[in-house]
Every structure is written in C-alpha cells, then in structure tokens.
Specification:
By secondary structure, the chain is α+β, with helices and mostly antiparallel strands. Helices cover about 50% and strands about 15% of the residues. It has two domains: about 140 residues, no CATH class; about 190 residues. The strands form two sheets. Strands 1, 2, 5, 6, 7, 8, 9 and 10 form an eight-stranded antiparallel beta sheet that branches. A two-stranded antiparallel ribbon has the order 3-4.
Length: about 400
C-alpha cells in the first residue's frame, strides 16, 4: 500500500511541497533493480533484486565499439527486446501482472509535472539522471552517463530541495535545480532526456512459479542465439579476440589505461553486483530452485557462482598485481565502491581523496606499464574463452531442462 504524501502550497507562487512517508533500504547492487525493489516495497510488494533481474531475462553480454568512440565498452545486461527505458524493469512489471507509463522529453516543465503528479499519487519517481551532475557519486564533471536510476520520494519547491533514495545505506538531498539538470542531460551515448517511469500493480502479483521457466528460456535464447556476434556468449568470444587488437584500436596509452579501468568497473564495481551480473544471476537461480523445488536450477546456480569467480579473475587480470600503478588503480576502485556501499555519502570525502590519486596513477601506468599490455592480457583472453565455453554449456542445459 502506498504511503500518503504530505503537500503544502505557498501563495502567490504556488510552490509545492510533496514528501512521501518513505522507508529506505540500502545495499542494492544495481541502481535500476535496487530502485525497483524499494519502489515495489513502498507499493506493498516485496521481491528481491536477483529475482527482478531473473524474471526480466536481464543477464547478457555486449561488446561495443564504433570509430567515434575512444575505446570499446562492455556490459552485462540483456536488452535485446527492451532497449528503451524502463527496459528490464518494464518487462519485469508486466510479467508480474503490472504495467507502466514512461516519459521521455526535452521539456523540463513536462518532466517536472510528471514527477509531481507521481509523488502526489503516493508513488516515488523512478528517474534517469546523468551521474556527472550528482555530487554523491563523485565521478567528475566530464563523466557523463545518463542511465543512472534512483528514486525521488520528495520535492520541496519552496526550499529548492529534493529527497533521494539511491542504492547506498542512507537517503540524501540535492537541490531541485541540480536534479533538473541531471534529468535533462542530453550527453550521448546515454542521454538522460528526462526519462522517468511510474508503475501500476494488481493487489496480487502473478506467481513466480508461472514466470520463472519462460524467463530462463528467454535469457538462454538471448545468450545462445544473439542477432549479432558482439552480443551474448558470442560477444564474450568476440571480446577475447578483439583484446589482441587494443593497441591498434586504442593507440593512445592513456586511453588504453582508461579503457582497462572502465572494463574493471563495469565487471566488478559499477553496479553489476560483481562479476558482470553473473553473481546476481546465480542468486536468482538459487531462489528459483527453491520456488520451483528444482535441483537442476540449484546446480545451475552453483555453476554460475563458479563462472562468477572466473569473471572476477578477468577483472583483476585487466589491472594485474604485477604492475603497481594498474594494481593500485584497481584497489582504489574496489575500496571506493566498498566504502560507498557500506558507509554511504557520509564517507564521500574519503572516496574523493582516494579518487584524487587516479590521474597520476593512470599517467604512470600509461608511461611505464601499458607497453606490457600484450603480455599481461594473454591469460585474460584465455579465461574469456573458457567462460564462453562454460556459459554456453550451462545455458544450453537450462534451455533443454525447461
């Protein structure tokens, strides 16, 4: 049941204050799925983050590179048939018997009105924002990514204040002006564009037993039979082959180091739950096994836990122990993420101090360690080939079983 909102009007400007009675819980692994978990709890429905990822067939792989890009990117979500926001969240909602209404607009006025309507109806707003405008993420003014999601559970127009629930231990506030900037960002390739979604759910959701088999089959199909070779398990193999070409694809040593660091972040610390969503999917299969009383799903969960360990090896191999600057870059990313996930925004200054060392370390790595790339990337390539084979095998078995 949605909590009631408190509203106040301030004449003559007609400024509003709408702040929901909202219960925050931190500890989420991914910004999208954890925001959805908190929103559904507010609406009276409890579901786990792994289950949301699983029933949306949300685990995938993509390797992407175009000439205009400074370096290739990788990702671990399956967006084969749900590229538009709310993506996998919309698919999960509909599978559970619900529906959604979303907005994408260049008009800040329309976007703000949609948010205020949603809050006034008792539902937090699940919004897209550009992380470059978020002080609590400490990423820097040039690190634009407009697909970060959090919940807005209150707006005070009088005080120019917004109440935010992100995936960290505590809630936070920011100025309404800054939120509007973050929502309206048009920086490519992932513009926020004022995207937002609100949901409706029936009193009783579709039973998970009725959803799980089809969701797993769909995820298996997406991984095993992708439309192009840089997606799914084929994409994992493609990336392993392309790694050999990185010195030609990324001739600038600084860009090469940055690419390695971003690959590490996307695999381990950038909201994937670790191991590029494989650990979360293992947890989903464990929950699914319990719900379905199915030992095959339980074994598949164990298999994906082992695959997760292989992905962690890949991430660590990109910034290996043997090279001090690269290794320290890895340690800083890991420690910064750990601090934010366990202590939240109260530890932001510590994270900023750690992050301040990154430019010098990256420069050192570019000068003295990037020349060894071909040498240290060889075991990473071999690991990716093994991961390809193992994921193909496990997903093939799951598809046949269900």
């Amino acid at each position: 049941m949605a909590s009631k909102s408190s509203t106040a009007q301030s004449d003559p400007e007609k400024l509003q204050r709408v702040v929901l009675d909202f219960s925050h819980s931190g500890g989420g692994k991914n910004c999208q799925t954890s925001a959805m978990v908190r929103l559904m709890h507010h609406l009276g429905h409890d579901i786990s983050e792994p289950m949301l990822l699983g029933i949306s067939a949300g685990m995938g792989f993509v390797y992407w590179f175009m000439k205009m890009m400074p370096y290739p990117v990788i990702g671990g979500m399956n967006r084969a048939d749900c590229r538009k926001f709310p993506g996998i969240l919309g698919k999960a909602a509909r599978r559970l018997g619900g529906d959604f209404e979303s907005i994408l607009t260049k008009s800040q006025a329309k976007a703000h009105a949609f948010l205020m309507e949603t809050l006034s109806a008792g539902q937090p707003g699940l919004v897209c924002v550009d992380i470059a405008y978020l002080d609590h993420l400490s990423t820097g003014d040039d690190d634009h990514f407009g697909e970060h999601n959090f919940l807005v559970y209150g707006v005070d127009e009088v005080q120019d204040l917004v109440y935010i629930s992100d995936r960290f231990p505590s809630t936070l506030t920011m100025s309404l002006k800054r939120l509007k900037q973050a929502r309206a960002s048009e920086f490519k390739p992932f513009p926020a564009m004022n995207q937002m979604v609100r949901f409706t759910f029936p009193k009783t959701l579709t039973p998970l037993k009725e959803i799980i088999p089809a969701a797993i089959r769909e995820n298996a199909e997406a991984l095993l039979n992708p439309p192009i070779a840089n997606i799914g398990v084929k994409g994992i193999l493609k990336w392993s082959l392309e790694l050999s070409r990185y010195p030609k694809l990324i001739p600038d040593p600084k860009a090469l180091v940055h690419a390695l660091m971003m690959h590490y972040i996307y695999i381990e610390t950038g909201g994937s739950g670790g191991a590029i969503f494989r650990r979360i999917y293992s947890d989903f299969l464990r929950e699914a096994a319990d719900a379905m009383d199915d030992n095959t799903l339980s074994r598949a969960s164990d298999d994906y836990l082992a695959i997760s360990e292989m992905w962690i090896e890949v991430a660590n191999g990109l910034l290996p122990d043997e090279y001090p600057a690269l290794c320290e870059l890895r340690r800083i990313q890991w420690e910064s993420n750990r601090i934010m996930e366990t202590e939240g925004v109260t530890a932001l200054e510590r994270v900023r101090k750690l992050s301040a060392r990154v430019p010098c370390l990256a420069e050192e790595a570019a000068k003295s360690e990037s020349t060894h790339f071909v040498e240290f990337i060889r075991p990473v390539k071999e690991l990716l080939e093994r991961i390809h084979d193992r994921e193909f095998e496990v997903m093939t078995q799951l598809a046949k079983h269900l």
